[in-house]
TrEMBL record:
UniProt superkingdom: Eukaryota
Topology within the bilayer: Multi-pass membrane protein
Protein name, UniProt field: LMBR1 integral membrane family protein
Organism lineage string: Eukaryota, Sar, Stramenopiles, Bigyra, Opalozoa
UniProt keyword terms in alphabetical order: Membrane, Transmembrane, Transmembrane helix
Length: 549
């Protein structure tokens, strides 16, 4: 394992903390800008733990020697006992999901207008958290009690003296295994060995092994996490490049000061015209009410006044919308960082390349192995194994980049799609309009997808990470757990992910531009500010009137 990689992975969490703090500032509502430190720290810690867990994956692979070519039985390839490190990371994730995050959410949910004492809120949050822990513990106990073994599929071969041969040292021995489709090299194997290979008998068998409690607990949370991961990852791998590229395309355009003043003058002219139209309608209504006309003429005048009033209201509404649109365009450009669209364009191009490579890896390696039993090509695995022979540091860094990119896709899917139940968005993430409880809740969703993401990465880069400990935990034990192994044997989760990838392609190809949505949000914000300003003005006038009395 390269110590440069270790130093890099130590420094990386610092950047992760900075990014998580930026996410807090971007998503959290202005009402929660000051205070609420427990929720903010919980969210930052969740994101940091999630990213660090993914960073351990290439470290585990590098610790194992990079691939199966490190050599069977060479203990020098493994310098760090990563199994215990993974157990510690998984235990921390379970602790956060079951205790810390529920307590934080319940603590802020107990806040109301009356602002009860903090002791009462702490007591209420502790009681709700205790109930959550009891429910989770009961479900975990039932799951771990029913599922104790892993049934691993294997092939048994009949080893006899006829098919066992001594190597040059006359001590080591090997036996020849018959495998369909293999053409044996006659220059290496003797006639007797070829006949022995043809005579080897094999039978499919199942090897049952006891699984530790911690692995069974990991399996429970991993299966629950897969329910969210397949949705968020399927949407995010398409949605992240889309958002970045369209973030550049729909960037706020510059409005010169002369044009802004010209548009304001046009709106002023329309206002004067509407004032004159309003006075005309008022005279018309007064004439219809008090004029010396017959009832038939008055009825006609009232009808015309009513139609003119409806037209006047529509014109006022259109004027209000145009004025708010003008202010919103000016405000959006004023608040926009001019370098941000360029950064989105660069990151968008890179994300398109990364998403295409990931989709090719899924199409050529992951899905064929799971559905047909064999890959079309190792694809990225071949690149990593080749780099590992000459530049192991670069291979580990690229593996980290691909794993983290897929995690960012998953986070994007979680924040974009959210937890939608019956067409309702629960704990949605909106820029500058997210509740503190929603922020903490979505931090928990990110933690939930860490375990299935690690399992998925171990599948995607199975050749390169063949000797890693994470393969032994997920690929050997969890995937073969009794009663739940059918979920992985029949590729239930991968089929669902494939469906959401196809759905995301259609959805984003038909989706309307985010520019209109952002404009509506800015206009809504301006309306609320105007309404608040009018209320403050009325309160000031009432206060001044009372002082004069």
């Amino acid at each position: 394992m390269d110590f440069t990689l270790l130093i890099l992975l130590i420094l990386f969490p610092i950047f992760t903390i900075l990014i998580a703090c930026r996410l807090v500032g971007y998503y959290l509502s202005d009402d929660f800008a000051h205070g609420y430190y427990m929720g903010k720290i919980a969210f930052v810690f969740c994101i940091t733990v999630a990213v660090c867990a993914i960073c351990f994956f290439p470290l585990d692979v590098a610790n194992a020697g990079g691939s199966a070519t490190c050599g069977i039985g060479i203990e020098s390839c493994k310098k760090i006992p990563f199994t215990y490190i993974w157990y510690g990371v998984f235990a921390l994730i379970v602790l956060l999901l079951c205790v810390v995050l529920p307590f934080t959410v319940f603590f802020y949910e107990t806040m109301d207008i009356d602002q009860p004492p903090i002791e009462k809120r702490m007591q209420s949050a502790c009681s709700y958290t205790l109930g959550t822990v009891v429910v989770v513990a009961a479900l975990s106990f039932i799951f771990c009690f029913l599922i104790r073994k892993a049934d691993i599929d294997m092939v048994s071969y009949n080893i006899t003296a006829a098919n066992t041969f001594a190597i040059a040292d006359d001590v080591s021995q090997f036996f020849i295994v018959e495998e369909p489709g293999i053409v044996y090299n006659k220059s290496i194997l003797s006639v007797d060995e070829l006949e022995a290979a043809d005579a080897v008998s094999s039978v499919a068998d199942v090897f049952s092994v006891d699984v530790s409690f911690i692995v069974r607990l990991i399996a429970l949370f991993c299966i629950l996490g897969w329910l969210f991961f397949v949705i968020f990852a399927g949407i995010g791998v398409i949605g992240l490049p889309y958002k970045l590229i369209y973030g550049f395309i729909n960037r706020p355009t510059y409005m010169p000061k002369e044009r802004f003043n010209e548009e304001k003058q046009k709106i002023g002219v329309r206002i004067q015209a509407l004032i004159a139209q309003g006075e005309s309608i008022t005279k018309m209504m007064d004439g219809a009410k008090n004029g010396n006309y017959g009832w038939k003429e008055k009825r006609r005048m009232k009808k015309e006044a009513k139609a003119a009033t409806a037209e006047y209201r529509a014109a006022c509404k259109a004027l209000d919308e145009d004025y708010l649109t003008l202010r919103a365009e000016h405000l959006n450009y004023k608040e926009n960082n001019p370098l941000l669209p360029v950064a989105k364009l660069v990151l968008g191009i890179l994300s398109i390349v990364a998403s295409i490579l990931w989709l090719l890896q899924l199409a050529l390696y992951v899905f064929p192995i799971q559905f047909t039993g064999g890959a079309i090509t190792p694809f990225l695995n071949s690149m990593f194994i080749g780099l590992n022979d000459y530049l192991p540091m670069l291979a580990s860094v690229l593996l980290l980049v691909f794993a983290l990119y897929f995690m960012f896709c998953t986070i994007n899917g979680a924040f974009s799609f959210g937890l939608r139940m019956f067409l309702m968005n629960v704990h949605e993430m909106e820029p500058h309009d997210t509740l503190i409880t929603s922020l903490v809740f979505n931090g928990g969703l990110v933690l939930m997808v860490v375990l299935p993401l690690l399992q998925f990465c171990s599948k995607a880069f199975g050749d390169y990470a063949a000797r890693s400990e994470v393969i032994g935990i997920f690929g050997v034990q969890i995937e073969y757990l009794r009663y739940v192994s059918w979920l992985f044997k029949h590729n239930v989760f991968l089929w669902i992910m494939l469906a959401f990838i196809v759905f995301a392609c259609f959805y984003y190809s038909c989706r309307r531009s985010d520019k209109e949505r952002k404009m509506r949000k800015t206009m809504k914000k301006l309306k609320e500010e105007d309404k608040h300003g009018i209320e403050l003005k009325k309160m000031k006038e009432e206060r001044d009137a009372k002082e004069m009395v």
